[in-house]
Each structure stands twice: as structure tokens, then as C-alpha cells.
Amino acid sequence: MTTIGLIGSGHIGGTVARLAVATGYDVVLSNSRGPETLTELVAELGPRARAGTPAEAAAAGDLVVVTIPLRAYRSVPVEPLAGRIVIDTNNYYPERDGRFPELDEGSTTSSELLQRHLPTARVVKGFNNIFFRHLGELARPSGAADRTALPIAGDEAQAKAAVTEFFDAIGYDTVDAGPLAEGWRFQPGTPAYGTPYGDGPNFFEAKGRPLGVDELMRLLAAARR
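-> C-alpha cells emitted (225 positions)
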């Protein structure tokens, strides 16, 4: 695959775009405010980047990253994503998103909600458990001793393999946490969320800390609902 579509181009989306362009991918950026609001980011990224609508980003991407607030997940275009692999970075923050009773009671997960909305897409949860600054800082070449691992969850092996390949290309190892239903293991409030990747008392100013495969696997196994 050569083109990454981004539905949402904020902190995580922008960071993923930078990593992708640096590795040789083309990117198509979009947000809810229109392509004209992405001029500065496109200029920063250079000739491998262009802006479009969410539907255009969805149609152009060999792999599409959905990185918008969970409350807006129903705005993601359905038809252009038919058959495509979608990386879902969403987290559930009730104070921002409002209440989702099915998430509060634990009967489903946020990525399963997106999968229901996109019944013909192949959704893989990823990029949701790491602070965007640490995501930008911790990328390392394959085989590096201080390489960091990120978790994924998804229901289709082929889709997860494609996401693993993309993660590897942009500088990260991958730990497969299982199907989408297991995505709760690295959602907010779990041991694998956020703080393992930051080294320092002030998380938001902390430098990124490498987190290897074995340690990430231990943290995922320690998660409790």
C-alpha cells in the first residue's frame, strides 16, 4: 500500500501523517472543517501530502486512519470505506463524548461501535493508547534495541497483518491483543494506556520512554474491567 487516508488531522492524525510521509507514503488529510484549513499542515508535509474531504480521504487511502472524537463516529463516511482497512484511534471520554450506556456497562467497545457503523470495512484498533508527542518521538528502525511496541485489536487476520506492516514501516513493533472485543485492554484507565510511554512526573511534558513487546504484553494481561 502506498497511500494513507486520514479522517481527522489533529494531534494523532498529524503525527501519523508525519511518520508516514517520512517513510515514503503518500497521505490524504481531512477534517470536519474543510480542506482549506489544512493548508499549513500540507505545506509542512510536502509533495506527498494533499487535503480533501473525509469521503475523498476514505476513497484514496489504501489504509485509512479514523482519528476523531468518539462522539462523531457516525459522521465517518460508510460507502467509500467498503472493503478498506480502517485504523480506529478512538477513545471513550464521557466528559467529552457524552454517555454511551453500552460502553459504560462494558457490553461492547468503542471500536466495535465503529465497526457496526462501517459493516463492510475491516476495523483495527490502534494508535489510541499513546500520547501523540510520544508517538512522534519513539519511532525506531526495525531491529533497534530500544524499539517501542503498540497494541492492536481486530477481527480479521489479514487486516491486522496489514496494520502490523504499516506500524513496522513507520517505526513500531506490534502486539496483537486479539479481536475488537479485547480492545478494552488498552483503553483509558488500563495499565497499557498512556503512562508506560512517558518518563517523568509530568506526563504531558515527559519524554517518550521505549516500551518493548514483553512489557506491553504484561500490561495487556494485567488489564481488568
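The two ends are 36 Å apart (CA to CA).
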